Every structure is written in structure tokens, then in C-alpha cells.
Amino acid sequence: MKNHTVRTYKSAEHLQRADQLAWKIAEVAADPVAVEPAVAEMIGNRIIDNASVAAASLARRPVVSARAQAEAHPFAPGATIFGLATDKRVSPEWAAWANGVAVRELDFHDTFLAADYSHPGDNIPPILAVAQHTNLSGADLVRGLATGYEIQVNLVKGICLHEHKIDHIAHLGPSAAAGIGTLLKLPTETIYQAVQQALHVTTTTRQSRKGEISSWKAYAPAFAGKMAIEAVDRVMRGEGAPSPAYEGEDGFIAWLLSGPKAEYVVPLPEKGEAKRAILETYTKEHSAEYQSQALIDLARRLGPKIGDLSKVKSIVIHTSHHTHYVIGTGANDPQKMDPNASRETLDHSIMYIFAVALEDGGWHHERSYAPERAQRKDTVALWHKISTVEDKEWTRRYHSQDPKEKAFGGKVVVTLNDGKVIEDELAIADANPLGARPFTRPDYVKKFRTLAEGIVSTKEQDRFIAAVEALTSLKAGELAQLSFTVEAGKLGKASPHGIFDWRAK
């Protein structure tokens, strides 16, 4: 890996293209390096992972609405939509939109946390949609996804967005555009322009993940994927993009991040170096914000030690800056303590999550968020006894580049009414690659079958898993097999009041 220093340049300095971050990203994308077997295996795992959470969310209103919008844009050859027959194709950017929302709705797929945070699996819907539309092979898809993950992870390592209240999809637009560039074997110049265009149109604020969090939290990554496809299409037609997008005097770093004097360091593979970043990412065992994964596992362990939860006086979670200020009491969001809050908000309240996990001894992607569950009097009482504090050591470990030190958990101090104190800590989730029970292919398959039960037939589940097992052998035109069909009655019904419904009529 080579570290690249990125800063703002005045227009008079005329930064050469070869020295711009977008060009360096494009060079990585255009490098036809072979994909290592372990990377191809993990890509298959994450395709299964995405399908798992998509299956469980197909009847939820945001997913139904996104699918209805996509169905208004039939196209040939086109791309498939989760849940619909594979011969029902729509324009690829709309397939990426519908599938991206389905994948993101439950906040239950893979994650990478460093200087910023991300869900790299959000790269899969747009890259897969383009691969289906262009009749490419499984091996082509794997190459494109290896790039998408590589660029996403390395941008997240080098450039912090959330400290400036910029949503993390600003890294997803460029990574998806780069992955599509690899997929289509586009020249460096084209990918360079597409990366810049994608950055320019996917930079939004973090209000989508604060306060009264709405369904846009699921839509935002899908929007970035859709914009990435449109960006690539546009520049393939000979159009350009704002340049230099990152380093320009009025650009991304100068006005949206740390300002004209700031420097960032972004690592990228050197020419001929394999793209292995996906192996640094991790998925979720529990349908909740990743920083809560280890704490849910810790709650399962702590519950029996505490016993009668009504005797708890206070619970303090000592954790990282990010956990405290984003999903903890440091966020100063009253909604995070509100029994009437939305699922999206409860998912970003470690106080709520830890209370329910203590009471139930685990977590469920639907039952744990049900209004009647959130409004239980004993739960509310326990929930309001929980607070978080930043611990500098946990913050240091959160940002550590040493996998053996990197941690996303915390220490929990429980004080009972009689003065007894119970303490325990857990650094990483059980399912993490370095955790107590690291996820492997059978775990991903089990997750898929569990979440797809009652929604996707066993026969269709088997067919889908077989297709993933043969991923690198799938021939041109066979990528529709990486979708699945369910009965129409299990897909939910969209509101017929959108603009596109006039077109459908």
C-alpha cells in the first residue's frame, strides 16, 4: 500500500491530474490485477449477507415504495429486483435504487469503521445491477466488487466525514463509480471523471442520521449507488466533472471538510497489488448499529450476573468518542430516550439497545424494535438508567490500525440499589473476524435462511445459494441468478400516489 497526501490547492497552483486523488483512485480501478481466492470467497459471503437482509425487509414500507418507483422504469436488458421474477427487468440505476434500499433498510449488513464509518456492502447493488444489464460474468462482477470495497475502505481510513457532519455516502458514490469502472474495464480517464462526478452529487449532511431519523437513512446509500451509475453513464458519453473535486480551491476538502490548510492521508494499493480491503470488513450478527454489536453480546453475558434488573440503580457504558457522541447520551438527542421513537432512531440509541438486550438476552431484527417492546414500562425504566461516557482508551482503540487492538465495544459499570457494583467489558463482537465466533460461509448461509424463512421458498433459497457457490464460474448473462423471487402477497403494497404512477397508468 502507498499513502497519498491530499490537500487543497489554489487554482493558480494547477495540480496535475496524476497527482489528484480521483486520478489515483481511477488508476487503482483500472489496474487489471487478479482477485485472490479469499477475496472472491468473502465477496460471495457479502452477496449472501445482502440478500439476507433484503429478504427480511421486502414488505417494509420504504422498500415497497422504492421498488414501486423502480418498476415504473422497465428496461432491456436491464437488471433484476429482489423479490420479483428475474425476467422482470428495470433500468440498472433503478434496480440499484430498489435493491439498495432493501439491503439498507434493517441496518443489518457489513460494516467498516476507521477515521469514518461505512457499510461497504452498499457497493454491491449498483455494481451488480450494471453487471446484469451489460451481460457480464461472475468473474467480472467479483473484480468490480473488489474495487468497490477497496476504494470504500481506504477512503474511510483516510478521510473523516462525520466530524464535519457529512454523511458517509460521500465515500460510497466514488467507490461505486470506481467499481463500475473496473467492471466495465473503462480507461483511467473515464473512471477519473466518474469518481469526481459521483463525489460531487453524493455529498450530503448527517442530519439523515440524527434527531428524528426517517426512512431516508435507508434511501441515502441507494441514492449514492444510483448516482454512481448515472455518473459513469454520463462520462462514458464524453462529459466531464468538477475538477479537482477533492483538492480544488472551492472543493470538497476546502469547504466541506477541514479547510484549505488540512491534509489527509489516503492509502491505496500500488500498481499490481491485489485488492484485499474486503477482508478487513465485518458483518453484523444483530440488526443494530455496529458499535452496539459487542455491547449486545456483552449484555447477553451480563444479564445473568445482574439478576433482577429492577434492582439496577445505574448503568454507565465507558466507550469510544464515536459511540458516545453518535449513538450514546453524548449525542444529546432526546429522541434516543423516547419510547415513541422510530425504529431508525432506536437503532441509534445504545441506551435502548443495551436495555432490551439485557432483558431479552439477545436481539431480534423485528421484535426488538416493536412499539410495544419499546414502550414496556420496565424497559423504559431500565433504559433511562443507562448513560455513556467517552473513555480515551476506547477511543484510541477504535482508531487503532492494529487489528489486534482495534475495538468497538466498551466497559459497562452496573451499580445496584444496594451499592454492589458489577463490571465487565468486551472489545469486539463475537461474530467479528477476531471475535469468539467469527462468521464463515455457513454462518452467512444460516443468516440468509433465517431471515428468508417464510418469505423465500426453500427451493428458491437453495437455488440462490448454489448460484453464489458458483459465483466465479457464472457465465455472461447468468448474473440474474444472484436475485430471488417471492410470492406477490409477501411483497407489500405501495401507495399509488407517486408521480411515476401517472406514467404507469
Read across the widest sheet, the strand sequence of neighbours is 7-6-8-9
State the major sheet. 4 strands, mixed
Q: What is the strand content?
A: 5-15%
Listing every helix as H and every strand as E from the N terminus to the C terminus, the arrangement reads: EHHHEHEEHHHHHHEHEHHHHHEHEEHHH
Helix count, DSSP H or I runs of 4 or more residues: 20
Number of strands: 9
Give the overall silhouette. Answer: globular
From the N-terminal CA to the C-terminal CA, the straight-line distance is 54 Å
Q: Catalogue the unreliable spans.
A: none
Q: Structural class of the secondary structure composition?
A: alpha+beta
The helix content, as a percent range, equals 40-55%
What integer value in Å does the Rg equal?
22 Å
Mean pLDDT: 95
